[in-house]
Amino acid sequence: MKISENVPIAELTTMRLGGVARYVVEIERPEDIAAAYTFARERNLPTWIMGEGANTIGRDEGFSGVIILNRLKGIFVEQDGRLINVENLDDGDFGEEITLMGMGGENWDDFVEFAARKGYTGIEAMSMIPGTVGAAPVQNIGAYGQDLAGVIESVEAYDTELGEIVTLEPSEMRMGYRTTRFNTGEDAGRFLIISVKVKLKRGELKPPFYNSLQRYIDEHKVTDFSPLSIRKMVCEIRDQKLPNPKKVASAGSFFKNVRVEPEKVAEIKAQNIPVWENADGSGKINTGWLIEACGLKGKRMHGFLVSDKAALVLINEDAKHYADLEAARREIIEAVKKKFGFTIEQEPVELYHETNNIKNNYAENE
To answer: Residues 251, 15: contact at Cβ < 8 Å?
Structure first.
């Protein structure tokens, strides 16, 4: 366990904003977790969990508590009830189904790449989502028609209320669109995710494909929909549209897509607004399309750039203060509200110290 003092939050988050964190504790082994919380409790300090910082927004006032960085590494295959590190596996056949486990601090895209390379479907469309495996179930991440809820088998986590390691099944996670038990309600911040298990099958993603993926397929006349092929296409699409947060200051997709109730889908389609229909009859509107339709794509405001490649992305060009982000965000939200009547919501979480709710600060995200 590594402990650092007075660390700039801007150095820990990909949006490059935020004052100083009083302490930062890096955990590299599961046994470090209890020690990290004991360290915070002995000093009566709040805690905040973070992965790679791609879905966390810092504020100017900093954080007078303990940021816990999840650095637990490793990808494992479950075979005959045993977990085997993939580094120790040959290229043999694992069967029609595979259970993969990723440690909470493992890079999510490395996890996806292994599964796709072995021919297992279920997460390949989520390639290149920035962040860690431990962040994935917090938001129930998803992309191009896949989401984690469809394949997750269990989560092993440290329960800060019980002070022990627990295993949670999907039915206990309350997974919805970008909301779960881990980030919403009274249990937000209660669990530090140690590892995530997913169950995948051999096969390929089936149509209908998400709009931008279908366009790529049509343009390039792709007929191979294997996991590795889908991954390749998704990576190329994301490379063209989304900046690498390790190189460009951004938080990836800054706004959530708009959810549409089943009874409203036809009405919105009649307004010539593109709607992706979900299996349950509900719909989803690409918020980037709404922002672009407001004429904001490529616009600079308050030190930020609405990406000229994907309007859903907000790039920090030279802003230094949270107030700059607040002003840019408000301008975008008001424009969409005025033109379409939708109130769009920010996706990244904000790191703050609220004294009446210090145990519930949670930001283990991308």
So the answer is: yes
